[in-house]
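Can you please make up a whole protein chain along with its backbone structure tokens because I've never seen that pairing?
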Amino acid sequence: MNQKIYTQIKSTIDKSKHILLHLHPGPDADSIGSALAFYHYLTSLNKKVTLISGDSNVSPGLATLPGADQILPQNFFDVNLADFDLFIILDSSEKRQISKLKEVIFPPHLHTIVIDHHASNTGYGDFNLIEKNSPATCQVVYKLFKALNIKISKEIAICLFTGIFGDTGGFKYSSTSAETFSICAQLTKIAPDFSKTLFNLENNDRPDRPKLLGLHLSHIETFFNGQIALSALPSSLLKKNNINPDDSVNAEISNTLKSVVGWNIGISMIEAGKNNVKVSFRTRDPNVFDVSKIATATGYGGGHKAAAGASLPMSLSKAKQLLLETISRFHPELGNI
């Protein structure tokens, strides 16, 4: 079944002249890694390719990946879709992951290919390659490239490896498999200086980032008899300390919270602007606490059983109340808030 969609994807690419690539809002290593891998592949075919940053800026660490300097600081609504005949949509479980600025609508002439690994992806493209058991979209892309006998250059290898490393939490998440390690072994043979890339990825912080971490750690609250830990920062506090919101800190804090024995779900919230609250969820036990269901139930999120996110168009206080009520609805066994 995959071989058929592989062939359809290759045929569609071969027929296309100008291809659009994007990053999802708050792009992580898997989003950027898969997009840049495709950028290097498509340009090797002498295709005209435009890669846009989407709604968000690229973090300094991820900006060190090969080809990142070719990412244009534009969102989906900045480009003229009449210029493109193909849109390859990577690591985006729904259209809102293309842009959250307004409704995304594809014009009739624009062919779409969706390549993803999120369980919540229902397949909204003309062609859909979705491997829900894969730990990263970059792993899906690797298998596609190998099946089509596409040469994996050093640049492609380091982008794919970085995406897999990022979305497996450094190979710590339960979705990591023997196949994942085998694929990464092949990629590191092609790009043996991968450790330098990981150093750049993890050591490019701004001076205000440690301050942001400190604020989060000083605002931890627990709910449901100490089983749920949450840190929520209002925009007023960020402004007072001259700190910009940072999605990567959000994920880092939720990971830290769930590392504590007894804190079964860790939630980090940051008010990035008026009626704009970014949320990161992590859990110690995804088989009991599927945080993707909680994120999806808000109407503005999604993700994986162990790690999910949401962007809530409401005040911080309303967002916090919505999350606690949603958790209570899904897990009444936790008791009162």
In short: The CA atoms of residues 67 and 270 lie 30 Å apart. Residues 29-44 form the longest helix (16 residues).
